[in-house]
Amino acid sequence: MEPSLKQNTDIQASAALEVLLRYWGHRAFRPLQEEIITSVLSGQDTLALLPTGGGKSVCYQVPALMREGMCIVISPLIALMKDQVANLHKKGIRAVAVYAGMSRREIDQALNNCMYGAYKFLYLSPERLATDIVRMRLERMPVTLLAVDEAHCISQWGYDFRPPYLRIAEIRPLLKDVPVLALTATATRQVREDICAKLAFRDYKVFQASFERKNIAYVVRYEENKLQKIQHILHKVRGSAIVYARNRKKTREIASFLSRQGIAADYYHAGLPMHLRNAKQEKWIAGEIRVMVCTNAFGMGIDKPDVRCVIHVDLPENIEMYYQESGRAGRDGKKSYAVLLYNLADRTAVEKRMTSLFPSEEEVRRVYSAVCSYLQVAEGAGKGESYDFDILDFCKRFRLDVLKTHHALHLLEQSGHLSLSDAVSIPSRIRIIVGREELYKFQVSNAAADPIVKLLLRTHIGVFDEMVYTYEAEIASRLHISKEEVVRTLTLLDQLKLAAYERSKDKPQLTFLEARVDARYLPLDGRFIRKRKKHYEEQLRAMLQYALNNTRCRSQYVLDYFGETDNQRCGICDICLERNKLGLTDLELEDITAAVKDILLSQPCTMDELVGRVRYYAGEKVIYAVRWLLDKGQVGHENNQLIWQG
Asked: How many angstroms separate the CA atoms of 239 and 234, rounded?
């Protein structure tokens, strides 16, 4: 007799728990993980909205490990792909990533190995997914699941829209009934609908965890002296912390100030060499550094559970970004703080960004032309090619404003012309591509190279089978020779076609999605640019309104933004704590506020007159409510009378 549907579900649930225990050491799933996995295993397209740190990767890794075949994971962030592959390798699971900065021969080898079942997971950037080199092999890969991470990037209404995501649906016919799992931590209702439509979801399910973080107290402080306030907060809130600043110079200045005050702090930004960034990050994770002062280049993919405080000294560009960055606090479930510091200068800066920093169509063309000159890309060339790109050096050389250039590059990305990745740290790689006998002949005729080759073969397991990481400085140290000598030998092996050798990379990668054209004829949609500017301004205004809000629970404000309208006051944000002092319920305060507004809009009056005219409530409660409205600036004084200011 065939097992019932319930029995099948129970069997699957039991098998999923076995995989979770075997590879992750956990005996139970986090909220919604099991339901998402069950949906995927049933073959349904699935959209999963889980908060930052909610365990999204488990939702595709577990079902993939339960089945024969391979899982393809689309991700826009090189650092996250590399972290995921490294974590899977630690568990003994075969995985590989293909992204900007890799050579064609490396990509060829990785994809060929995927066709023959050598890997369980293939991580791809969306730009690589759209290339012929990938698509011509997809049909021959044993794919059983397609996972789309950071799925909000598919929507032009998302805060990080990337056009290559729009082409994911094109590969669905090649994969033949393979279900799609889309994952994101931040998406409004409009973005959620966009994700399902643009990924061509058919019979699908949506699982959404609440965006509420009950253990995080959101706090906004108006502060002219932000350095002193940061110091004050860090003295009051013990434990690990992150301080986000808008520019690189400010990260150094704040870290230096905190260090002088006896607080163990360091700074981090994308302009630092990768080895230095990694060292700083590791010290912070280990607790050797208490406070990391950084740009938003820091934090993605880092799961440090005991961060007690996240401070923003500049206004983020949108609520999504702020929610994600502040959500790095309190992942262990203990009470933590997300503090935003702002002043009048921030408001002025936001208004300036809205009016002058968003580039015109002509400015976008100028930046495109400068990029092509900077990278020396000829007309008709460049498609699919990746180049090291230092935006600060680029702007300095062409005398361009950094922020406006950043927006221009973002528009070129959103228009589908190029893609700028996060900084990529790829160690040198090598593979021996001839037999041992031919390699031995080289060693005999090149005595100086012989010790290097011998050490390479002894210490690099699998060097005849695939590209493996190699560290020239380490080889040089063990042989007591210079690093340059090692590089020369490995380069010679490559030139003689005895090995495939790729030097290390340590820069952001700019990829041309289309061949270079004359900037005058670059297809740009002016209406699209104007629409993006309007959307950008709306997001900035929503962020500014969050900072200026002084009556609404901070958590409620954020939840409303993401479409969760049925929610309670958090009770721990700065607004709620002030409200709690009044001893008034939500309903009482709303009623009194409405009555006060009606009275004062019709005619200014004194406190005594106002108390007498508000019906149904004791005078003490009315006085408490009015004082609170005065503190919040909704009620003011004029000629010794109260007036409504809104």
From this structure: 8
**Confidence band for 1, pLDDT divided at 50, 70 and 90:** very low
Residue 66 neighbours by CB under 8 Å, 6+ apart: 12, 15, 16, 19, 41
* Alpha helices, H only, 400-525: 402-414, 436-445, 450-459, 472-479, 483-495
Sequence letter at residue 163:
P
Residues 158-188 have pLDDT tens digits of 777 888 888 899 999 988 889 999 999 888 8
Q: How would DSSP label each residue in 80-135?
A: HHHHHHHHHHHTT--EEEE-TT--HHHHHHHHHHHHTT--SEEEE-HHHHTSHHHH
pLDDT in tens, 232-257: 999 999 999 999 998 889 999 999 99
Amino acid at 302: I
pLDDT tens-digit map of 428-462: 899 999 999 999 999 999 999 999 999 999 999 88
Chain-centre distance for alpha carbon 256: 27
Find how far residue 117's CA is from the centre of its chain. 30
Distance CA 487, CA 476 (A): 9
Give the span between the Cα atoms of 32 and 205, in whole angstroms: 12
pLDDT of residue 422: 67
Residue 551 to residues 50, 115, 558, 631, 633, Cα–Cα distance (Å): 28, 58, 14, 10, 10
DSSP state of 645: -
Q: Beta strand pairing status for 95-98 and 70-74?
A: unpaired
DSSP-based three-state secondary structure for 385: coil
Answer yes or no: are the C-beta atoms of 432 and 438 closer than 8 Å: no
Q: How many residues does the chain have?
A: 646
Residue pair 49/209 in contact (Cβ under 8 Å)? The answer is yes
- Which segments within 323-460 are labelled E, that is strand? 336-342, 386-388, 418-423, 428-432
